[in-house]
Amino acid sequence: MHIRKTRLLTPGPTPLYPPALHAMMAADIHHRTQDFVAVYKAVVADLKEVMGTSWDVVPLACSGTGAMEASVSNFFRKGDRVVVLSAGKFGERWVQITQAYGLEPVVLSAEYGQAVPADRVVEELTKPGVRGVFLQASETSTGVMHDVEAIGRAAADTEAIVVVDAITGLGTMPLEIEGWGLDIVIGGSQKAFMIPPGLAFMSISPKAWKHEETSDLPHYYFSIRKEAANAAKGQSNYTPSTALLLSLAEALRYMKSLGMDKFIENAQLLAKATRAAVSELGLKLFAPDNPGAAVTAVRAPEGMDSGVIVKGFRDRFGAIIANGQGSMKGKIFRIAHLGYFDFPDLFAVIAELELILASQGVPVEYGKGVAAVQRVYAEAAG
Amino acid sequence: MHIRKTRLLTPGPTPLYPPALHAMMAADIHHRTQDFVAVYKAVVADLKEVMGTSWDVVPLACSGTGAMEASVSNFFRKGDRVVVLSAGKFGERWVQITQAYGLEPVVLSAEYGQAVPADRVVEELTKPGVRGVFLQASETSTGVMHDVEAIGRAAADTEAIVVVDAITGLGTMPLEIEGWGLDIVIGGSQKAFMIPPGLAFMSISPKAWKHEETSDLPHYYFSIRKEAANAAKGQSNYTPSTALLLSLAEALRYMKSLGMDKFIENAQLLAKATRAAVSELGLKLFAPDNPGAAVTAVRAPEGMDSGVIVKGFRDRFGAIIANGQGSMKGKIFRIAHLGYFDFPDLFAVIAELELILASQGVPVEYGKGVAAVQRVYAEAAG
Cα separation of B183 and B202, whole Å? Predict the structure, then answer.
């Protein structure tokens, strides 16, 4: 075996931004000191800046799913009627969480690879008594994107608060939290934020705080009102994840230095180039209609298990790419763009894909997919 | 500006092997403890194993040039007649060091891009009173390789010891230290060993130790006999570079796990693929006759300063590649293969090169050079 570097090409965890990785080395700090209070305050301020909101933002020591649960347990009441968009594995998770807490979800499903049309949501919102809308900005399992703006604006005049799982949406698509009325927006550390898993965060609108006042669902670790009050003082309810917060502080500085518009455009360009490359290679997109920029899901060639491609990346090149989840497993593979990816990463990924396909007897002209990526680069770079 | 990862593509420093980088974090260790003695002994034993010799090997806290100086100041006498092969900037350094210590070098020069033919050295060795031969296994400034075996074998029956600057030769070409009679072989940490600069090492033959006994040149920090005696006890003469030795220990474990034959073949395959790619793009090699596998020097297209290409790599892609040195500056650029490089690195580098050339108006078919790399990969991987 020759040298084979491990490369993470999955839609979370994503490749680590090296200065953020190294920042974890400074984690011999006590969390109830003024030094750490300064770190915590900076993280909260910078999260607000990159998320583009003046509303409350709280970090949480948990994975994204913990924050999803907190958005239910802190802001709703038992028996609340809510609309849930389900277009993949993460939409199904909203259904499970809302049901676990005794809410009454009206599930609007889309086939895997499709988005739930916004007008179906708008129609549902005209019915009385809907107290919330749950959706994924970007459904990581299929790569599809929802029309967050239309749904946010439609809910603004209703009693419903809009709860957006933007775990892979933040940093890959514009999300105007205040302008579009996105009451709760959830992110996760191991996505566009370029640090390891273990941290989530959530923004909360004034309208959501109103909901919170009447919430009757049990919660303890995830007490968002208390968390927001503490965050204002540079503190967390319980022991914070110091290493990850130090890391996030560094990553946020980098995101600010690039600017969120450029950061998002980076993912969008890589997604566009990936779509161009796989089309050039004769492969089909799984979500051709509303493709997001977090991840591109690609169908394996007819008659080939996508696991063969995933295994080829790993065994031949040390590259970790994602298979499909659930019933999509074996049918699709997913190439990530969110966070710390650049064009040279993609030149290599597509060259690898060409070699893997060729090794399986698929007719491939070497360099043809790479050339498609190069054209997108050249057009963007001028 | 979008995300642009910094990538080191120079023939030293080379990209760091991550576990070796992380091993430096354990450097809060005292160097005169049994814990560190164990590290030092392991490093010396593993260096011998990867260099393929049972002769003495000593690590030195200096750059490669320090070890080059030590090979002069410890093993020769004032006025010694020595043969120096000079085929580039590092050959010139041998001339300077031997002169600085009052040796009398007979300089056998080759034009930049050419090797010094072994038969010229052999002929010189037939003359009486030659006490040493100094050469580069691989001349990093031009990418050319010398016929180390022929020179080593020719000197075996003479009074001359063979001193090989293998700083970029180790890990990129076979070097049979004992079989070919390579009396002193010098390596450096920031080359194929995949760790930062700051450490050099040297193997010493019994014949070289005989020379050492009669050496009359001044030295203090570089006292190789004392260093070898201490190394046998897991100690260094003066304070060792603990962080780098911990790092080297980790890198050596990795090199052993791959096997030196595979490790060398890795660089050779990347060099072969690079030559194929640049030829495909219509560029000319600077050392077409005896190309080494440490680095490939490529001529800029007619009428273009190679600095434009170096700058293109840096500004467009954050990639650091080497310009020519001295009078070669502006004429060539150099792509490194030694150490922690793999094929995905090269897929990206060649795609970048194509885009840089195209941006300068050079007619380039995107993906054509990459395809040449892919063909070399596919042939090797089967």
Answer: 10
